[in-house]
Write a structure and sequence with these properties.
The protein is an alpha+beta fold. Helices cover about 25% and strands about 55% of the residues. The protein is globular.
Length: about 140
């Protein structure tokens, strides 16, 4: 009986260790949030390569007077110039119980934003979930 329990415990430990290793191997990114009180002011996304981390993306967030997400600016790391390059900007507009996202892409040649798309959500909970899910991409 004790041998059977020991065998099951070892099997569970091996499966858990293998699962943990697979999860770590499938997510090549690590994030670091710079906080301002309860709000994420900046999120750095690093790419994992073996034992090293390198810059990948950076997201800057602003909030309105009601502490709701107002905008998100995304930068991509250029390893050749060692500078952050602006990629996109999203404004979050709260009206009539809905959240409207205005997406714009940065045009390097024109040095201006180009309007990309507009999405609307029914609640602010939806927008916070969407922002959290897309900030690592």
């Amino acid at each position: 009986m004790k041998a059977n329990v020991f065998f099951r415990t070892v099997c569970v430990a091996v499966v858990m260790a293998a699962t943990t290793t697979m999860v770590k191997a499938t997510n090549p990114y690590v994030t670091n949030d710079v906080m301002n009180g309860e709000q994420v002011e900046c999120r750095y996304v690093y790419k994992k390569d073996n034992q090293t981390l390198s810059y990948h993306m950076k997201h800057n967030f602003t909030y309105d007077q009601e502490n709701r997400l107002a905008s998100k600016e995304t930068y991509q790391w250029n390893s050749a110039t060692e500078e952050w390059e602006l990629q996109s900007h999203i404004d979050y507009i709260y009206e009539n119980g809905e959240v409207v996202m205005e997406n714009t892409l940065w045009d390097k040649k024109e040095k201006t934003y180009r309007k990309m798309a507009q999405q609307s959500f029914q609640s602010s909970d939806s927008i916070e979930l969407y922002a959290a899910q897309t900030s690592n991409k």
